[in-house]
Specification:
Elements (H helix, E strand, L loop, with lengths): L1 E2 L13 H12 L9 H7 L3 H26 L2 E4 L12 E6 L16 H16 L4 E6 L5 E4 L20 H15 L4 E7 L3 H4 L5 H10 L4 E7 L8 E13 L2 E12 L7 E9 L2 E9 L3 E11 L6 E6 L10 E6 L5 E7 L2 H12 L8 E6 L14 E5 L5 H12 L3 E5 L12 E13 L1 E4 L22 E9 L2 E7 L4 E6 L5 E5 L14 H16 L5 E5 L12 E2 L2 H4 L11 E5 L2 E6 L12 H7 L5 E5 L9 E3 L1 H18 L10 H10 L2
Parallel strand pairs: 3-4, 3-6, 6-7, 7-29, 15-16, 15-17, 17-18, 18-24, 25-28
Antiparallel strand pairs: 1-2, 2-30, 4-5, 8-9, 9-12, 10-11, 10-13, 13-14, 19-21, 20-22, 22-23, 23-24, 26-27, 27-28
Length: about 675
């Protein structure tokens, strides 16, 4: 409990005023012994115990009345969770705000999203309990800090508004930790507002241990998690993939894979009307969603033969989260999918070339070239979509060219060389090869995103059929593990990069290393997915995730539809939209990882903050209960009850006719 007017608590000694008055009155009168009344005194002594108790209760009631008044005018605050406001206001309050797509789920009755609810409650709490605290905001879009002048500004700042991005909670905590260390913030409260989505928290990543170790060293630090992990009912999310144009005998058509996810499987089929907008022309498509998702692969939409490029949207009816109801796409004539394989092992290199150069769609053209490490100058960096590197990690000029290649949005997969070196790239370094007496299996992999995720129909890849006889050790930092082997070593991981995608695979195709070729589905799908991602950054139709652009990168883009015209220029990198510049069209959408409703478990949350002064507060979207509220009314009620009790105790005794005065006299006469 804390007090908004704590200086008034200095009046608490006034609680002893009734006792002081009693002592003064006791010494004011002189006792005179009168023989004619001695028998009355002896009679009264028989009721002395009851009289003493009665007077003591009157005295206590008066003291409680004074105490209730003092506490009431001091404006006490308490929270719905014990100890929330204890310990006084901190010197610094850090707010770490999750602005991901899933935080826009709202309560149907209040229409307030999880993000808005969290901001409203934190603003009220800090206004009431932390008036002298320095307020600093860290948001999941910019991953930078901003000093906030007033708690009320939390509701108005652009940096607290909605976005169509994912969140990186470990990244937010890393920034907050650096701020605390760099500014010596003293007594600090850290508030994390999030819905605990598994993809946003990356609980299995290696950054949490470092963060926890740094925070444990800080004194006067309290961590609060304002959790909105409750599932909003009846939410659908639509997405589109594999959009490409092809010629037909009657003209042309767009082919695409449409997926609709439902957050809860009620067991009943739901009829859902989809709106399809192609270059401004709207049509309807009715689907039936049974189970947790609907998938339609290869859906064809007829277009004019002259329409060689354009844009479109797939729209769902309004539901509990409007942020995932629209998915945008652009199309153009398909570029050639070009792959370059750099390998120091002829056999493994040829397997990699075949997997990249064989396409499953006849309308797509694919090329794959095999080079040795001495031939890297032959790489066409501008036209290549995927680079597969199975050789010692590059150095000097080639390393710089490769980084530019990735920063342009394209993709690279590193496979281990026959002789690893100490060179490090993207925070990863090959160590020694490990031979396994017993073939290892994949014991864990990510099914919602990445190269090993489930297929478009929701079926998992046959990863359990694979065996690994050799794999290369890998030291890494700041990575997302996509698949792990028995014993804990990584099989496939994604390294951190601002743009594009960087993957490391620790084993090779070939009977000496694995059954990648014998059970070729996983290997082929993995390579083709990386190729598709890299190709998306080439050509005149590009699909990007919100949050992957630089702050000013889209300032000169021209909106293609009415929805994109409403987006502020400063917010284009974090909001979905359709744009063009020169002859290239861009579709910005939410990351598909936000469509997964998986959350981390309570046990995982507890382990992530183990050893810290940590409090978890569970809330729900649209909730009206305050994190902390004034309870002075309770003390006023206490004062009124005490005064009423004092009045009842002072009523005349029906048997003796004595009241307050006689009771006091009785008490005095017995002293």
């Amino acid at each position: 409990m804390t007090f908004l007017q704590p200086f008034l608590l200095f009046a608490l000694p006034l609680i002893g005023l009734p006792v002081l008055i009693h002592l003064v009155n006791q010494n004011r009168h002189r006792t005179v012994h009168w023989g004619a009344t001695m028998f009355l005194v002896q009679a009264k002594r028989m009721a002395r115990g009851m009289a003493r108790l009665r007077y003591l209760l009157i005295l206590v009631s008066r003291m409680l009345a004074i105490a209730g008044l003092i506490f009431a005018i001091s404006r006490p605050m308490t929270g719905g969770w014990l100890g929330l406001t204890a310990g006084g206001a901190p010197e610094t309050t850090l707010v770490l705000l999750d602005r991901s797509v899933s935080m826009e789920a709202h309560d149907p009755s209040t229409r307030r999203s999880k993000r808005e609810t969290a901001l409203q409650k934190l603003s009220e709490l800090i206004q009431n309990t932390g008036r002298n605290t320095e307020l600093v905001l860290f948001d999941s879009v910019s991953l930078t800090h901003r000093t906030v002048r007033s708690p009320a500004d939390l509701l108005e700042l652009p940096q607290t508004g909605p976005s169509d991005t994912a969140a990186d909670i470990p990244g937010l905590l890393q920034q907050a930790t650096e701020y605390i260390d760099g500014n010596e913030t003293g007594r600090t409260d850290v508030w994390i507002c999030s819905d605990l989505r598994k993809s946003d928290w990356d609980a299995s990543g290696g950054r949490w241990e470092v963060i926890r170790r740094q925070l444990e060293q800080r004194e006067g630090l309290r961590m609060y998690l304002l959790s909105y992990s409750d599932e909003i009912e009846d939410n659908l999310a639509v997405s589109v993939s594999g959009v490409h144009r092809r010629e037909t005998s009657d003209g042309a058509e767009l082919l695409m894979d449409i997926r609709v996810n439902r957050n809860a499987d009620s067991g009943l089929a739901a009829n859902v009307p989809l709106s399809v907008v192609i270059d401004g022309a709207r049509s309807a498509l009715n689907i039936s969603v049974s189970g947790s998702e609907f998938v339609r692969n290869g859906h064809a939409i007829a277009i004019d033969r002259e329409s060689t490029s354009g844009w479109g949207r797939i729209e769902l009816p309004e539901d509990s989260n409007p942020a995932d109801n629209i998915y945008r796409f652009v199309y153009a004539e398909s570029p050639v999918q070009k792959t370059v394989v750099v390998s120091d092992t002829a056999g493994s290199g040829e397997y990699l070339r075949l997997a990249a150069g064989t396409t499953s769609d006849r309308s797509q053209l694919a090329e794959a070239k095999l080079l040795t490490p001495d031939q890297v100058e032959l790489i066409d960096w501008k036209q290549t979509a995927l680079l597969i590197w199975q050789a010692p990690l590059p150095e000097n000029q080639v390393s710089g060219q490769l980084r530019e290649f990735v920063e342009s949005g394209r993709c690279v997969i590193f496979f281990p060389p026959e002789i690893p070196t100490s060179k490090e790239l993207y925070g990863c370094r090959w160590t020694a090869w490990k031979s396994n007496d017993v073939p290892l299996k994949i014991n864990r992999w990510r099914t919602e995103t990445g190269l090993l995720s489930n297929t478009g129909s929701g079926m998992p890849l046959p990863l359990g059929e694979l065996n690994f006889y050799r794999h290369c050790g890998l030291e890494s930092v700041r990575v997302n593990v996509l698949g792990s082997l028995d014993g804990g070593d990584s099989l496939l991981l994604r390294a951190f990069s601002d743009r594009g995608a960087v993957y490391y695979c620790t084993s090779l195709p070939g009977t000496r290393n694995s059954t990648f070729i014998d059970n070729g589905v996983v290997f082929y799908v993995m390579i083709q997915r990386a190729l598709a991602r890299g190709t998306a950054a080439l050509g005149n139709a590009q699909h990007l995730d919100c949050g992957t652009l630089g702050e000013f990168e889209g300032n000169n883009w021209q909106p293609l539809d009415d929805l994109s015209e409403r987006v502020l220029v400063s917010a284009r990198s974090s909001r979905a939209g359709l744009y063009s510049i020169d002859h290239t069209r861009y579709a910005l959408n939410r990351p598909l990882s936000e469509d997964s409703s998986q959350i981390i478990t309570d046990e995982t949350v507890a382990s992530l903050f183990h050893g810290l002064d940590f409090t978890r507060l569970d809330d729900s979207a649209g909730s009206t209960s305050a994190l902390a509220s004034e309870v002075w009314r309770m003390f006023l009620v206490l004062m009124i009850v005490a005064l009423m009790a004092e009045s009842l105790l002072c009523l005349p005794d029906r048997r003796t006719g004595s009241g307050k005065t006689n009771a006091v006299a009785d008490f005095v006469s017995t002293r």
